[in-house]
Amino acid sequence: MGNFVCPTTGSSLDTYTCAGQSVWPCWCQSGTYSGTPNSFEQGTCSLSCPAGEYNPGSGCITCDAGKFSSEGSSSCSSCNVGQYSGSASASCSDCPAGKYFVNSATGVESSACSMCTAGTYTSSPASSTCTVCPGDLRLARPHSLNLEPAYSDNEEGSASCSTCPDGEVSPSGATLCSTCPAGYECVGGTTTPCALGQYSEGGSDCGPCEKGHSCPGGTDQVPCRQGSYQPDTSQTKCESCPAGKH
Predict the structure, then answer these.
(1) How do residues 155-166 score in pLDDT, each as one tens digit?
(2) Which of 47, 83, 189, 195 sits at a 20 to 30 Å CA gap from 116?
(3) Which residues form a coiled coil (predicted)?
């Protein structure tokens, strides 16, 4: 019998070898191919598919978007969550900080990763979600021991949140800080109730309660009602007028 002409696969990379006096071609091992298509000579399967392609035994095939391969691979691997790749990729790319993963099967960052919305952030690359900027829980629950500082961010695609300036505070997920409420002082993003005998009108530090007022703590100062008085500062209650006086 004569030699068998090795068939082609429609590409320049043949995946068969033909030994002398062969009748049927022989498949190359997965991950390799022969560089001698249409030849009477004996082929060798020493050539590997390049990175970004794979050979399952039927020729080199391009890896789809969202997958990658190294040289000589017999299959493609999927990108990890938070990563993306185009077709024929040798590796995957991370979604950058300030963005979160949406779709791995694209080689374009703008469609693979979305910017964190205002009031949220992610400081790490390859993130699948964004984190809500924390707010001061003391403001929502005055007796809470949680003094988590308040943050905000009014820009999309943030890699971090900004601490509210002194005299301001924010709830969780805020895009802007607001004026510290009456009866509190806000320093370094943390909201603290005014102590007994002190007060604040909002947006300022706590100060001593004025004469003629009471300051039970955590409020603005309260004027003494008719029939009561307070001659001293930093007091928590007013005194009743004695008999014969008003």
Answers:
(1) 777 888 888 888
(2) 189
(3) none
